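Students often ask why we bother encoding 3D structure as a string. The short answer is that it lets us treat folding as translation between two languages. Here is a chain of 475 residues written in the first language.
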Amino acid sequence: MWVATVENIDWPSRAGLSIDQQKQELIGLMEQHKRTGMNAIILQVRPTADAFYRKSREPWSQWLMGKQGLAPAPGYDPLEFAIKEAHSRGMELHAWFNPYRASMSANSFASDDHMTRKRPDLFFTYGGKKQFDPGLPEVREYIVQVILDVVKGYDVDGIHFDDYFYPYPIEGQRINDSATFGKYSNGFTDIKDWRRNNVDMLIKQLDDSIHHYKNYVKFGISPFGIWKNSNEDTLGSATHGLSNYHELYADSRKWIKEGWVDYINPQIYFSFTRRAAPFATLVDWWSNNTYGRHLYIGQAAYLVNQRMEAAWRKPEEIPNQIRYIRANNRVQGSIFFSSKSLSTVARGTADSLRNDLYKYPALPPQMPWLDEVVPNVPQTFTAEATATGVQLKWTAPLKASDGETASGYVIYRFAEGEKIGILDPSKIIRVSFEDFTFFMDTTAEKGKRYNYLVTALDRLKNESEPSGPVGVEAK
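And here it is in the second language, the structure alphabet:
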């Protein structure tokens, strides 16, 4: 689930809320997404060269306290809080950055500490918005360091970019980067190829840098849904729309082909019946172009019930999209834009997820190219019936061959006579991405006998063999 902070789209609901209100809103949002079966939150932490986290070289975001640079109460770090709350609920937390965007409008007020004030030479203005110039080596270096602040300083599970690279084209506007091209052409003669290469260099450098510091941190990008159309390139999709490659200078297929990203997450914000770019056509195309990396489909929960197209007024549109994705074993999941829509326009979709499609928990899919060493089994697993529930305790597993013990656990429960094993997700009663070694099952019915299993998870969600089973009669 994407949680957008820019212009207070999802969280906080408005700038200037008290710290308690911000925390309560975030907990409420995570509880809601836990109920709808989500296993990852993608939180926007840097919307316009500003920060939703304390350990930053950039000023606090204006969408936090109402003014850029204005710090929240001492001791409060929104990102740190979000990570803790997500992990305790068995959800990953990916930090979402906008690499180049530095302002949302011509009249947006920047604090004196903002890079547009300190180093105006690093930006161009397009459509009234300030953007870092991707052609400047210093810009690439700076963006990498900004992101490494979070990689090194926080317990994030992933680093995420959305679709904003070079700006979306606006009639009558041109990108003012010819001087940069003249100075840093890198042997390119075509400015368009040069621009694409500038973005490529940033992506490759980030892939190397993130995994150098923490190999388990996933790096993923969510580009616009079309790489190239087939009338532009026979390798492209049978679509007719704006393309990443030509209009945004983002060679999204190359990043995955070269293995520079761990997942690609194209925004296929189209219905099955969208003539220029049908949903199924693009899912099929991307699934044929993943080169062994993960493919998550970006789905448009925000379009449900909108008037623009009849398909979005059908309650089954997104559920059918999920079923279509599931029928393709080269797609590993979905990400929904955005958080608020599941409690407003797409409430019906949220019901379908909670009651049907996402009824049972799912662990994030494994990434064997980053880590395929399975953790060892949790030890000394016991279950004791008490007046308040069944108390489960265990000790952490011994270190596996890669030095990891456990970063989380999964608890399974079986009624008497049920088949015991870890392949049935309906038997999961708890997933946590924390290293607690106890759990109180308060939902066990008095007088019933149960068997329990516990498995260990490492940072990349490789799951151990189970410890147990242990049997107990609930009091």
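Translate back mentally: The chain has a mean pLDDT of 97. Keep this in mind for the problem set.
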